[in-house]
Design goal:
The chain is an alpha/beta fold. It contains 14 helices and 14 strands. The chain has two domains: 2-183 and 354-370, 3-Layer(aba) Sandwich (Rossmann fold), CATH 3.40.50.2000; 198-351, Glycogen Phosphorylase B (Rossmann fold, 3-Layer(aba) Sandwich). The protein is 39% helix and 17% strand. Helix 1 crosses helix 14 (354-370). The longest helix has 18 residues, at 334-351.
Amino acid sequence: MRIVIAKKLLSSIGGSEAQARALATALHERGHDVTLVGLRPAWRRPGIPAAVYASPPGPVALREGGVRYVFIPALGGRVGAAIDGLAPTTLVSRSELGRAIAGAEVVHSSAREWVGPLERAARDAGAAFVETPLVHPGQPFSGDSAADLARYRRDDAIVALTEWEAQWYRLRGARSVHVTGVGANLAPLPDVPMDGATVLFVGRKERYKGYHALRDAAEIVWRSRPEARFVAIGQSAWTARFEPLRRDERWVDRGVVSEEAKAEAYARATIFAMPSRHETFGQTYLEAWSAWRPVIAGDIPPLREVVRDGVDGLVVAQEPGAIARAILALLGDPVRARRMAEAGRLKVQEQWTWDRVAERTERAYLAARAMLTPGSRAPGPREAP
């Protein structure tokens, strides 16, 4: 199949960005012609090829690992690209987008970015339109608006990451929903020793991710295990500038790091903890399991589907006392912690390799193309009654 996957930021660093790139590579390895379409950034970002910045103004096309990449400039030049890269806006030229997807049989929108122009371009090109909405009900711009729900009912296929998420779409009238999960994106582990008592957090340092609750839990853990260290990796929330700095050498805050540095952090960690209360899947749990580390996850339906409480990790409320008790339980029972880590790693190998995810995504694409048979296509956004 000729497949176009669109994601605003095509960096190799970041959750959904890295997922889009890994999926494209896995689909290419399965014999498909895959193009990734994204925004030409206004400034240098980690993980964007240097050739994008060295090229003259306009769209940039290049190949990497057999996958074609197209970086489209935003309307309004650098200012427009800056706005479109940071805000839930659509400042891409419709004609540039149309040229980027020309010849596609399937157009796949990731995370609802540029979704309106992408849907129209796909309809104009006669391609099947698929999206991975990554809905987060209850959050701002979470994908549960009336316009979003109407589009889900028009989509030729929706890719959900868990059965819980899939059921959410089905209950709102989506016609064709497929569960694929995601794979782990982790560089090879370096040969370094595991620390005795280190808790790792990887993700955006937002309240909903559990970062603040974990900081409060550290104070409780230190009462019993004063030697415990906490390492937090990821982009800070915009509100961080207004928060007091933690002045304790046992709490280490790091920003966005390279994939190699992230792999080393997993290798040195004893436990991975991200007690999130909003998540569609939680790819970082797979990364931790790939590094033979037990996980602590938030107590929400999609995460209970990924993390089996007491089997390959612990599921807890986003409350400092509950998080601290889970950390102390795993630090105090290394044999149990190791057993959970091994169970998680086996589950990744059996269910969530990128080849398996790509195979499930193929089935979603084929179902989407079947929806395009004469008389079966849902009305596009301009045709809706």
